[in-house]
Amino acid sequence: MSGGGDLAATFRRLIEGHGPMPVSRYMGESNARYYASRDPLGAGGDFTTAPEISQMFGEMVGLWLADLWSRSGKPDASYVELGPGRGTLARDALRAMASQGLMPKVHLMEGSEALRQVQSGALTAATFHDGLDTLPEDGPLYIVANEFLDALPIRQLVMTERGWRERMVAFDGDQFVFSAGPSPMDDAVPEGRRAQPIGTVIETCPAAAATIEEIARRIDIQGGAALFIDYGYLEPRCGETLQAVKAHEKTGVFDAPGEMDLTALVDFATLAEIAKREGLAVATATQGDWLRAMGIDLRAQALSQRSPERAEEIAAAHARLTGTEAMGELFKVMAITPRGGQRGAGFG
Ligand code: SAH
């Protein structure tokens, strides 16, 4: 167990003392504990992300940001990353930006002390932030977040015989179980989606919504752009997507709170609406389409020619990042750019 003792036992005591807790609290506290104490990424960890698969991913992100920044004509700007993991994406993106003559200040929003240490090792000079509110207020912000939104706590709503209720985590005998909360939650479900069969689950992510709203506001005032990449959906939908992963395998969401990664698919449909409502321009694509439009095929060729002994590995990474059966379709890319400003590359 990591520092702080057994979170399952703590949750059990809390539930026995105060009643069931919302799924959002279960997920939020579980992930905070999970990330605080370890580096979960890579073959020896629990999961592998796109930047850990190949340098090409971060390079495409860096070129996308560099293109917009160059065209904006503004000299000083910041590179901002949310949930930078091992700092691999930042390192690759910043190298690609430097190849275009661009050297931004680097600001990282990271909740985990353990990962901050890893990021400090990967990058020469970075300023760390607990939240968005302390990011610089002068100059454009070029923001990226890969597999960050999916880790933010979701709220689940469940349709019952008495209408919509918040979905809770209860304790029954010797195990955690889902239950329905006591208060009517119909108002929290968009009107057009309220009529559903009993048992239907809808997920919302207030923390992701707040993140997008604040970032849209900042870009509107300061300039810049944001790129969010994550697994998720582009059309509104119902259904439960909360999942747990440990050692590269799916596991039960109640198996080991604090010791496994809890994620949910990102509702890009809703997040795009939020940014549009703030007046910003939004574009979305699948990861495969976007990477191809950004030139990943040529980049893979060039890398293979330079290191023929690595050609097979590069081809495998390319297939994993872009392939329909791999990450190419499930993962989506969402760009937020200023109203009336330049549009980002790669969105058809
Ligand atoms: N972007 C990286 C890591 C993804 S894992 C990559 O692609 O490899 C999720 C990252 O988000 C971790 O760095 C984790 O510590 C961070 N994170 C999760 N929830 C957070 C929160 N609420 N605030 C800040 N960082 C958070």
> Roughly what fraction of the amino acids lie in strands?
15-25%
Rounded Rg? 21 Å
What is the number of E strands?
16
Coarse shape: globular
- Helix percent band: 25-40%
Mean pLDDT: 95
Architecture of the domain at 44-151 and 205-236 and 258-337, according to CATH?
Answer: 3-Layer(aba) Sandwich
Order of helices and strands: HEHHHEHEHEEEEEEHEEEEEHEHHHE
Bound molecules: S-adenosyl-L-homocysteine
Biggest beta sheet summary = 8 strands, mixed
State the secondary-structure class. Answer: alpha/beta
How far apart are the termini? 47 Å
CATH fold call of the domain at 44-151 and 205-236 and 258-337 = Rossmann fold
What's the tally of helices? 11
Q: Would you state the CATH class of the domain at 44-151 and 205-236 and 258-337? A: Alpha Beta
State the low-pLDDT regions, or none. none
For this entry, give a set of tags.
348 residues; Rossmann fold; eight-stranded mixed beta sheet; five-stranded antiparallel beta sheet; globular; binds S-adenosyl-L-homocysteine
